[in-house]
Amino acid sequence: MITDRTTGRGRVGGMRRAWGFTLVELLVTIALLGILLSLAGPALTKVHGKAREIQCINNLRNLGIAQTMYANDYRGRLVPHAVLRPAPPQALVPNEQMTFWPDLLAPYAGDDRSFRCPCMRCDPERGVGYGLNLKVTRAFLVCDETYGTHERLIKNPAQTIHIGDAAFITPDTQHGSPAQWEEAIRPLGAWTMRTPDDPLWSLAPARAMPRHLGRANMLFVDGHAESLTIPQLGFDKPVGHPKNIWDRR
User: Where are the beta strands (DSSP E) in the chain?
Assistant: First the structure.
């Protein structure tokens, strides 16, 4: 009988194993794949988060372009928070008495998705994820667009925030530090960004929201956008502080 040169045993009794995995090899492979996925998971999450942050920044830049077009039509004025007239049909912010700034800029923005941060916790088809800095607007409510703040009144437009990530904060976190703030789920989101000196800071806590790995994306009056932490915005500083970028200067 011909013997196997490797084992010295007959081929009939020592037939070589067919291709495949043993149970042990299969379990080891699954374990290795699990380890690789656990290592790659945080990196993939970070990449996905960065992609949404970039999309959000692009949304704000588009709103900056819309604001420029709006200012050209209204003699250099910034969009007011709201004007005293009913909102249009299919409004981003439906209201029978007022038209809020998203619906004033919408004709210039061209796409309603520009008003929706990809990380916001509200209706992705209807809600608004960006708030207007009330310190930049001339008043909460005006008669018409001609009463908006004039651009020339903003002494340092490159360091004054205009529009940015905003949300209502949950009641159980609104009194904590910005790192503890949690976004409340509201169908229409938020279109106001209140500042610490606002009497409604606690009663109606629509504030800058750090949705992007602890940072909030902000559009400045000059049209550029940045990703900043809440302390960098100066929300812990009084009106007029040199490092404060939320009040009119």
Answer: 82-83, 99-100, 130-133, 161-168, 192-193, 206-208, 216-220, 225-228
In this predicted model, which residue has the larger pLDDT, 66 or 144? 66
Residue 85: both structure tokens together: 């007239």
pTM recorded for the entire structure? 0.79
**Residues 193, 164 contacting (CB under 8 angstroms):** yes
Burial of 96 (0-12, 13-18, 19+ CB in 10 A): exposed
Which residue reads 């990809």 in tokens? 118
Cα(98)–Cα(199) distance, integer angstroms: 21
The closest of 92, 94, 96 to 115, measured between CA atoms, is 92
**Average confidence (pLDDT) over 106-127:** 89
CA–CA dist 215, 202 (Å, integer)? 21
pLDDT at 14: 47
**In the block, residue with structure tokens 């502080």:** 241
The residue-averaged pLDDT of 119-137 equals: 87
Confidence class for position 59, pLDDT limits 50, 70, 90: very high
Cα gap 103→113, rounded to integer Å: 12
- CA pair distance 145, 101, nearest whole angstrom: 10
For 152-216, give the DSSP string: GG-S-GGGSEEEEEEEEBPTTTTTS-GGG--B---TTB--EE--TTSTTTTTS-EEE--TBTTBE
User: Hey, is 131 helix, strand or coil?
Assistant: strand
Using alpha carbons only, give the angle 171, 176, 177 rounded to the nearest 5 degrees: 135
Q: Is residue 3 predicted with pLDDT exceeding 60?
A: no
Q: Position of tokens 């106001």?
A: 192
Distance from C-alpha of 106 to C-alpha of 112, rounded to nearest angstrom? 7
